[in-house]
Amino acid sequence: MAPVMKKEGTMPQKIRIVNGWVVTMDPSRRVIRNGTVTIDHARIVSVGPPGSEAAADPTAEVIDAHGCAVLPGFINAHTHLYMTLGRTLGYDQPFELWLPTQKNLIAQFDEEDFAACIRLGIADNLRSGNTTILDNLALPAVWENRLYEAAIVGATEIGARYVLARGYTDQFNAPEYLEPLTAIEQRMRALAKNQRGAADGRIELMLSPMLPWALSRDGFRLTHRLASELDLRIHMHTAETSNFAGLN
């Protein structure tokens, strides 16, 4: 089956993936031999055995997946995409030395650099089969929301599902990363109002107290309140190496 020709750089509105081993991951864990997946305007509208779909649309692009597995995209449940450009730096260092190396690189980024880094990181994830990425970012307070917004711009341009866990701390962290609780609340509310649900719902947000010891009791109370009021989930680290932040 020859695919329908399309203009360079455009996505076809309708796609049929045929002849593959379709791993559905539905409740019964069906695996369909020579199955067909039909996509209409970036949404999967049918999954089934050959001939299970309605009359095939002759305008659809056809992808022959013979010899391939067709399955739902994977989920990267925790990553830090702003470290994409520094992934080869300090690979032989212990964590407490590696982290400043990364921070010093990230400190050189402006909004354009940051968005490019996020785009590259998402592209790497897509090549690995991850179509949903949870990106846990924490940045110096001086940036307020600007780099987080740049990350969302970069993610929107790529086309993956992107969940930004906006990190924050108010104690026991590098001074440039500390934010007053009033600022944390204002910035989280602004992100939720302006960015959540962007790109046809592909962009989501989470609250992220970055480290258990680096947020005060009042900060955790604020997190609980914002999670309830804004209907947001919470994402955080629960442990680190014994030498990090002076913990022994």
What features would you describe in this structure?
- The strands form 2 sheets. Strands 1, 2, 3, 4 and 5 form a 5-stranded mixed sheet that branches. The protein has a 5-stranded parallel sheet with strand order 6-7-8-9-10.
- With 248 residues, the protein is α/β, with parallel strands linked by helices.
- The protein has 6 helices and 10 strands; from the N terminus they run ββββββααβαβααβαβ.
- Helix 2 (111-127) packs parallel to helix 3 (146-158) and helix 4 packs parallel to helix 6.
- The chain has helices at 95-106, 111-127, 146-158, 181-194, 198-201, 217-230, and strands at 14-23, 31-40, 43-48, 61-64, 69-70, 74-79, 130-137, 161-168, 203-209, 233-234.
- Helix 6 links the parallel strand 9 (203-209) and strand 10 (233-234).
- The relative contact order is 0.11.
- Mean pLDDT is 89; it is low at 1-9.
- The protein has 2 domains: 14-70, Urease, subunit C, domain 1 (Roll), CATH 2.30.40; 74-246, Metal-dependent hydrolases (TIM Barrel, Alpha-Beta Barrel).
